[in-house]
């Protein structure tokens, strides 16, 4: 995760119709961790993610999205209401009463993770695809099969 104040580059992008726009201040993408996983929503939407601190991201048109929550509702996948593109993710985490029952170190970890703003780099302009390294991860989906 990039921290505010480092030598950063500006990346801009957005959905197909322009209703949702994103600005990201980041180290060059070839210098940061980029992840792709096999969870069904990421596979179906082609989400390749970076996970910067919220302070490094500007979202315009968030009100033009429809958030799809799944599973326990800890995460949301907002889609542009007009063109359907999935530009970023929403993190909600567990309910506060669940979080309060966790050990303090785990609470701190969860709260720190909730300071992240997931972004789909496929919507950013100027990505040097031949220079980035995308790390692939198995997100606990063993035995799960996407239906044709």
TrEMBL record:
Coiled coil: none annotated. It comes from the Eukaryota. Pfam families: GFA. The keyword Isomerase does not apply. Transmembrane segments: none annotated. Keywords: Metal-binding, Zinc. SUPFAM superfamilies: Mss4-like. One of its GO terms (molecular function) is carbon-sulfur lyase activity. Residues 11-130 form the CENP-V/GFA domain. InterPro entries: CENP-V-like (IPR052355), CENP-V/GFA (IPR006913), Mss4-like_sf (IPR011057). Belongs to the Gfa family. This is CENP-V/GFA domain-containing protein. The lineage of its organism: Eukaryota, Fungi, Dikarya, Ascomycota, Pezizomycotina.
């Amino acid at each position: 995760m990039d921290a505010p104040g480092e030598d950063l580059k500006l990346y801009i992008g957005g959905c197909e119709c322009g209703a949702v726009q994103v600005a990201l201040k980041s180290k060059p993408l070839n210098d940061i961790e980029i992840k792709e996983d096999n969870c069904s929503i990421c596979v179906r939407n082609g989400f390749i993610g970076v996970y910067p601190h919220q302070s490094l991201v500007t979202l315009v048109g968030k009100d033009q999205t429809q958030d799809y929550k799944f599973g326990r509702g800890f995460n949301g996948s907002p889609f542009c209401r007009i063109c359907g593109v999935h530009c970023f993710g929403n993190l909600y985490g567990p309910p506060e009463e669940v979080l309060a029952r966790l050990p303090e170190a785990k609470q701190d970890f969860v709260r720190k993770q909730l300071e992240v703003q997931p972004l789909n780099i496929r919507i950013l302009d100027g990505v040097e695809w031949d220079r980035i390294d995308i790390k692939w991860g198995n997100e606990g989906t063993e035995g799960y099969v996407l239906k044709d």
